[in-house]
Design goal:
Blueprint lengths: L1 H35 L18 E9 L3 E12 L4 E11 L8 H14 L18 E8 L1 E5 L2 E4 L4 E10 L3 E9 L23 E2 L9
Parallel strand pairs: 3-4
Antiparallel strand pairs: 1-2, 2-3, 4-7, 5-6, 5-9, 7-8
């Protein structure tokens, strides 16, 4: 009996060690992924990223008459909250966009991303035949910096606006709540267009009124 007890105790201990190893391995992978690219840690909600991962997307669009940008964004549906989430992670000017400051580039990119219909960018409900009202969580980085001609995230702080969306001849957006974190420190002027390196100050680009412009 003593031998059986010892063997059983050994098996249980081995299983516990294996379980903890798997947990630490997965958690470590997630931490390394976030550290290697801050945009991966730009989650902007309480939805579980392991159970409900984002899908990443890239799209080029025109802003105004001559400015063309490439945007990177990620999206998902969160069953826990019932919200459709989109996070604009970076913007890269592909042509002369000097007429727009950094915040305006993100404003216009987000506005086109969430209001354009028929382009397959989001494919979020409601559609034209629906009377339902759904919630969209729309986010951007709180702070960005210019690195290799692309505005990328400085840290994992988010600016988030939660919209209630319904269809009435066109999509109608009603703002429910907004969350605007503290400004970046150190901070560059918002109209800074000079090339930056990873140690440069960041630009604060939160704007919860972007859809009203």
């Amino acid at each position: 009996m003593l031998k059986i007890y010892r063997e059983l105790k050994f098996v249980i201990s081995l299983r516990l060690v294996t379980t903890w190893f798997v947990v630490l391995f997965v958690f470590g992978d997630v931490m390394l992924l976030s550290q290697s690219n801050p945009a991966n840690g730009l989650i902007c909600s309480n939805c579980d990223t392991l159970l409900t991962p984002f899908t990443n997307h890239t799209y080029s669009m025109g802003i105004g008459d001559s400015c063309v940008v490439e945007i990177h964004y990620k999206k998902r549906y969160c069953p826990l909250t019932g919200e459709y989430e989109v996070v604009l992670t970076s913007v890269k000017p592909l042509s002369n966009c000097a007429m727009y400051d950094t915040k305006t580039l993100f404003n216009q990119s987000l506005k086109i991303l969430i209001t354009a219909t028929g382009n397959g960018l989001l494919n979020f409900p409601p559609d034209t035949n629906s009377t339902q009202t759904v919630r969209w969580r729309v986010s951007r980085p709180a702070c960005v910096k210019l690195v290799n001609d692309e505005y990328i995230v400085c840290n994992t702080n988010c600016c988030t606006v939660l919209f209630e969306v319904k269809y009435n001849c066109d999509r109608k957006f009603s703002k429910l709540i907004s969350r605007v974190p503290a400004t970046c420190i150190p901070e560059q002027p918002n109209n800074s267009q000079s090339p930056g390196d990873p140690d440069d100050g960041c630009i604060h680009i939160c704007d919860d009124k972007f859809l009203q412009k």
